[in-house]
Specification:
Layout: H1 13-16, E1 28-33, E2 38-44, H2 73-89, H3 96-99, E3 108-114, H4 125-138, E4 145-150, H5 158-168, E5 172-177, H6 183-190, H7 196-209, E6 212-217, E7 220-221, H8 228-243, E8 248-254, E9 265-266, H9 270-284, E10 288-291
Parallel strand pairs: 2-3, 3-4, 4-5, 5-6, 6-8, 8-10
Antiparallel strand pairs: 1-2, 7-9
Helix pairs in contact: 2-4, 4-5, 8-9
Bound molecules: iron/sulfur cluster.
């Protein structure tokens, strides 16, 4: 069974248009996110568009020069408070992008560290988490999550661990990327010099402390979906994590939603994604939600 009971149509304008620009804001932007199951306020900690991965499916526009290169914490705080105010005042619904998603655009499901790169790469991650936690508390948004969408490479940094502890105390949730089962496929899809075993170790250590979500993008590379043996290896990695004490809430299995920079990285069909999800469920026993 699909664990996602509240599917949000991928045809909604506010879902298709995941632009990270909102008014003249530099760091904060509202979107309707299928994986958040509603309104998500994004906090972009990488306005410089820097990442330690170079995924073949990455949708970040690195051709357009960034408007700023570093996070200004005071401005980020003010922008976040203002977006929350606008949601509450119903101002968001007056924007054409959100009009047809009115039922979804009033409840803030999460505030997500996401954006144009890898959030754990900044030097003051914990400070930024504290700011978001403070604004969330001041706004009385106890049920709103703080989500960290991460490639997991920086989860072993001391400052990031401090940030995760602040998240834990403030309804936080980590969504860690795992797109492969082997070092070779990891290098093919995520194109990084970071070792695959470091990613696995970071996912394990993080999920031993608190339950996490695994987010996995499945796609066609040069026309071929993930090979069967690779999918089996991917399930083996999940089972090894579980065996070693990982707490995994669920797996988000998704595919390419918007144009990729690499023409050979293309979308799976809904049926293909569902077949992969069924394999993961049967081999690991984990709940899997799909987002095609
Ligand atoms: S980890 Fe995210 S931001 Fe970085 S290259 Fe991959 S998709 Fe892009």
């Amino acid at each position: 069974m699909n664990a996602d009971a509240t599917k949000i149509a991928s045809t909604l304008a506010a879902v298709k248009d995941h632009t990270r620009s909102f008014e003249d804001f530099l760091f904060v932007y509202p979107v309707i996110s299928r994986r958040s199951r509603g309104l998500s306020i994004g906090v972009n900690l990488n306005p410089d568009k820097v990442c330690n991965f170079d995924c073949i499916y990455c949708e970040v526009d690195r051709q357009t020069p960034p408007r700023t290169r570093s996070v200004d914490p005071a401005r980020m705080r003010a922008e976040l408070a203002e977006v929350i105010r606008q949601v509450r005042a119903g101002d968001l619904l007056r924007r054409s992008r959100f009009e047809e998603a009115a039922a979804l655009a009033t409840e803030i499901k999460d505030i997500a560290f996401s954006g144009d790169g890898e959030p754990t790469m900044i030097a003051n991650f914990a400070e930024c988490v504290q700011i978001v936690a403070d604004v969330k508390r001041e706004a009385g948004l106890a049920s709103t999550k703080i989500v960290l969408i991460t490639d997991a490479a920086g989860l072993d940094k001391a400052d990031v661990k401090r940030g995760l502890e602040i998240m834990d105390a403030n309804n936080g949730e980590v969504w860690g990327k795992l797109d492969a089962g082997t070092e070779d496929y990891f290098r093919l899809v995520n194109r990084t010099t970071i070792r695959f075993d470091r990613i696995l170790k970071n996912l394990l250590e993080t999920s031993r402390v608190r339950p996490i979500v695994i987010q996995s993008l499945f796609l066609r590379v040069h026309g071929s979906p993930m090979p069967e043996a690779e999918l089996a290896a991917y399930c083996d990695r999940l089972n090894e994590l579980l065996r070693d004490g990982a707490q995994i809430k669920e797996v988000h299995a998704y595919t390419v939603a918007r144009p990729t920079p690499e023409p050979f990285a293309t979308k799976l069909t809904a049926a293909e994604l569902e077949t992969i999800a069924a394999t993961i469920r049967s081999k690991t026993g984990l709940p899997v939600s799909t987002f095609e």
